Amino acid sequence: MKTILIVDDVQSVLDLIAYYLTAADYNIITATNGEEAIAKTRETKPDAIVTDWMMPKMGGLDICRKLKKNPETADIPIIACTVKNRYVDLLWASKQGVKAYVTKPCTKEELVRVVQEAMK
Amino acid sequence: MITEQQSKNSELEAATSELEATSPTKSVANEFKGIGTLRRRLLTSILPIVLLPLVIASTIGYNLTEHRAKTEILEELETDIEADTLLASKTIMTFIQESFKLIDLVAANPDVIQSMKAANKKAQEQKLTQQPIAELEKKFAATKLLTTDNSLNNYLKQIVKSTQVVDLFLTEGNGFNIAFSKPTSDFVQRDEGWWQNSRQEGRAIEELKFDESGNVNVIALSQAVKDPQTGEFLGVIKASIPLKTLNSAITSYLDGEYEQYYQFQIFDSKNNFILSNIDSEDGEAEAEGDQEIDMEGVEVVGGEPIIQVIKTLVNIRENSLNLEEAQQSIAQQFGFSEVMLRQEEILSETSIVALLKDQNKIYSLSPVPNTDLVSIGVVNYEMVSTEGRSLVTVFTVTAIVLGVASIGLIIFLAEQITKPLSNLSATTQEIAKGNLDIEASLEGTLETRTLANNFNNLIKQVKESLEKQQESLEKQQESLEKQQALAEEQRQQKEQLEKAIHTLIEEVSDATEGDLTVRASLDSLEMSTVADLFNAIIDSLQEIAIEAKKSNSQVGSALKQNEEAIRFLARQAMAEAKETRDTLVSVEQMSQSIQAVAENASQAEAIADDTYNNVLNSTKDMDLTVDSILQLRTTVGETAKKMKRLGESSQKISQAVSFIEEIALKTYVLAINASVEARRAGEYGQGFTIVAEQVGALAEQSAAATKEIATIVGTIQGETEEVSQVMESGTTQVVESTRLVESTKQSLRLVLEKSQAIHHLMGSISQKTVSQANTSQDVTKLMRKIAQLSEATSISSKKVAQSIVETAEIAKKLESAVAKFKVNE
After folding, report:
1. CATH number belonging to the domain at B108-253, selected among 3.30.450.20, 3.30.70.3270, 3.40.50.10260, 1.10.10.10
2. CB contact A36 to B (< 8 Å)
3. Which chain B residue has its CA at the smallest distance from A53's CA?
4. pLDDT tens digits, one per residue of A82-113
5. Which residue among B236, B419, B501, B714 sits deepest, i.e. has the most Cβ atoms within 10 Å of its Cβ?
6. Contact criterion met (CB < 8 Å) for A92 and B528
7. For B423, what's the count of Cα atoms within 13 Å in the CB-facing half-sphere?
8. What percent of chain B has pLDDT over 70?
9. Residue A100 in contact with residue A82, Cβ under 8 Å?
10. To the nearest whole angstrom, how far is the Cα of A23 from the nearest Cα of chain B?
11. Which of B522, B529, B536 sits opposite A55 (nearest CB)?
């Protein structure tokens, strides 16, 4: 069973995504801010990370950059799940090392498909 | 909405009124005042095109015609006048010939001759010739006849009646009348010129006279009558013929188009009178001859020059002069523009005729053969110009008529063209005022009709497009409202964006002062990407700053450690360089010494070489000396031998001398003996005694000479002995010398060998020192390079030391710069 780390500062969103992915048979770990997310990643080495972008202090891309610098965590695919939906946002995210991109709000199938593809 | 629509409409109206104001209807008259109408333009452009060629053609035509007419007329005139003059000449000649034939007929009448002879006889008998003429006139005033013979008078009257002759009378040989057709004024004719001429020349023609009885102008011809048998002069017949007979004969023959301009004169060149003057222009009066013609008032046409020319012609005929020369001289003398002389046959008689031309007249002169008469024909060709004038009138009138016709035609055409155009113009003005409902009428040519039709179509289209414009205006209104709503939305978005940007600036502006701890919040949807970009950059900067701080302190410590070592190295390098330089100096000195040694060695070699050569030369000299000594020895030996032989010879000589002495003594004894004997012989031996005495004397002298020779030989022997002794001692000396020289030579050979060895040694020494010097020079060069290298090394190490110091300074600066950055440690 694969482990997925979900990061979001909003608890309800976190719960929803966790619900979606649990339903798809994934093991779920959650974090509500960047520091927590990095710490948990180092600890558990998840197979993928689904993170929100716009969070206070440390954003989703900050997490991504931090993880990419560490060779131990550099290969973990990161999926951005955000309301931002413009082309430049997508471009910048991919430049910062985000592997896949899901626009909120999304359906379960959408999310699962993207996560699966990112892990391939 | 409604109010907007209204305002739109009012705008439209305003625009329309503006359009009207700027339309050309009002201002056209003022603006285009200077430009001519179509009609005027047509007139000003087409009229010259029509009239100008007309005028030019007329002028050219006139000039051509006039010129041709003039030339042709002139030529015609020349031929005509010449032919007519010639004809006149012929006529005159015929006339005179025929007249004289008539007179001949009278003269041939035997009655006439008879009565003349009788009258002559009577005159002689009555001695009438001795009486004065006045007296005779008085005497015969009644009858005016010498003998009244009515039958003769009747005969003459009959002739007058039946012929053209109007008067006929006869005189006898002294000029007294004997018969006449009608009474004459004088009785005695002897004093008359014609009578005298007739008597002298046989024939005479008198000046023109007016016969009052016949009321005609007459020409009088007179002829002398001679006795057919004896040829004696009997009298004169005179006949008067009316001028008009001649003139009408001449005029009847005249021919030619311009004969009305001709004038003819018959001139007597001998007696200088004009016989007839026919002036066609003055009418026929003179030709008719009904009135008396006063020939005094008539002058020869052309005046004196013509008379002179006539005289020249007579002269040519009489003296048969060259025609061309005469022609030239006439042209030169009298100033005619043209002179032409040629020969003509007049009734099988040759005559010289002349054609002359001056400024406005042509003269034709034709002398009548066998007479002094000349017919002169003249025409004034000024009349040609008169003909030309009528030509001008014809051409001018034609040109004017054509011009007027073309002006009328052009005006009519212009009217036809411009009328539809001005109608169309009026219509356009009406439409320009805003009345779009009227239409232009289709009239005039195809072009103006098409124009009017196109104009109507244009107006239709304008109407339609105006309606369309109205519709599109409404549509525009709607889209404008939509756009406004959209703009409001955009404005709000823009405000939001600006707010976000403002927040971002507030958050990150501290970074410009080195605070790398700042973070941009990701709250704004629009700006969060940019904010994230900032955060990424600031993170990177932070890492760099931290790294720089770390590296800088490392560099600082490392530099401190290294600085001393490098300084030391530099100092060492400098010391090394100095040492190298010193070494270089020593090496150079050494090199110089070696060079000096080499030079000395080569000098020594030269000296040794010299010595060797000297010794070699000495040896050769020595050899020569030895040879000469040895030769000397041989010579001395030979000399001793010869001296010995000389001694022996001297001894032989002394033996011979003693023998001769013995002989001399014996001879002397003999001589004494002989003298003693001779004395004995007495007188016969006296001579022999003298000989014996002489032989005795001779023997005495011989003995003395022999003694002398013995002394000399003894001396020679003595000296020879001495020489032999000396020679002996010389020989010993020579032997000694030879031995000494031999030993010296041996010593010299030794010296030579030694000096040869020295020479070789010196050569090798010199070579070696030279190679040594070269080597030392190479060494010096190497040393110099080394010195340069070490110098460079020292400079480099100095530079290294300096750059380390500089690096340290830079590191310090960097440190202070990095210190400005505030980072999360």
Report:
1. 3.30.450.20
2. no
3. B522
4. 888 888 888 989 988 899 999 988 899 999 99
5. B236
6. no
7. 17
8. 92
9. no
10. 30
11. B522
Contact A53 B532 (CB under 8 A): yes
- What would the pLDDT profile of A53-80 be if each residue is shown by its tens digit? 888 888 899 999 999 988 999 999 999 9
Take residue B152 and report the two structure tokens written for it.
């003769």
pLDDT band at B388 (very low <50, low <70, confident <90, very high): low
Question: Beta strands A100-103 and A78-82: pairing type?
Answer: parallel
**Residue B228 three-state SS:** coil
Cα torsion through B659, B664, B668, B671, rounded to 10:
100
Judge residue B476's burial from the number of C-beta atoms within 10 Å of its C-beta, 0-12 exposed, 13-18 middle, 19 or more buried.
Answer: exposed
Amino acid (one-letter) located at B114:
Q
Query: Distance from A99 to chain B by nearest Cα, in Å?
Result: 17
Contact A54 B536 (CB under 8 A): no
* B528 CB within 8 Å of a chain A CB: yes
Residues of B in contact with A95 (CB under 8 A): none
| Residue pair B219/B229 in contact by the 8 Å Cβ criterion | no
Global confidence as pTM = 0.41
Domain ranges of chain B: 108-253, 562-819
* Chain A, nearest residue to B519 by Cα: A57
Determine, for residues A56 and B532 on separate chains, whether the beta-carbon distance falls below 8 Å: no
Å from B14 to nearest chain A CA?
Answer: 51
B532 interfacial to chain A (CB closer than 8 Å): yes
pLDDT value for B32: 59
Q: How far apart are CA B413 and CA B406, in angstroms?
A: 10
User: Between the CA atoms of B7, B8, B10 and B11, what dihedral angle is there, to the nearest 10 degrees?
Assistant: 120
Instruction: Determine the Cα–Cα distance for residues B536 and B520; give it in Å rounded to an integer.
Output: 10
Provide the number of CB pairs (under 8 Å) joining chain A to chain B: 38
Q: Do B532 and A88 touch (CB under 8 A)?
A: no
Å from A44 to nearest chain B CA? Answer: 25
> Given B525, B529, B539, which is nearest A92 (Cβ)?
B529
The C-alpha atoms of residue B53 and residue A116 are separated, in whole angstroms, by 107
Each residue of B623-647: b (16+ CB within 10 Å) or e?
eeebeebeebbeebeebbeebeebb
Asked if B528 and A59 come within 8 Å (Cβ–Cβ), the reply is: yes
Give the residue from chain B lying closest to A83, CA to CA.
Answer: B525
Instruction: For residue A60, give the chain B residue with the closest CA.
Output: B532
Judge: A84–B529 Cβ closer than 8 Å, yes or no: yes
Query: Could you write out the DSSP letters of every residue in B556-575?
Result: HHHHHHHHHHHHHHHHHHHH
- CB neighbour class for B736 (10 Å; exposed up to 12, middle 13-18, buried from 19): exposed
φ and ψ at residue B730, rounded to 5 degrees: -55, -45
Looking at 2.60.40.1120, 3.30.450.20, 1.10.287.950, 2.40.50.40, the CATH number of the domain B562-819 comes to 1.10.287.950
Domains and CATH numbers, chain A: 3-119 (3.40.50.2300)
Q: Where are the alpha helices (DSSP H) in B320-382?
A: 323-334
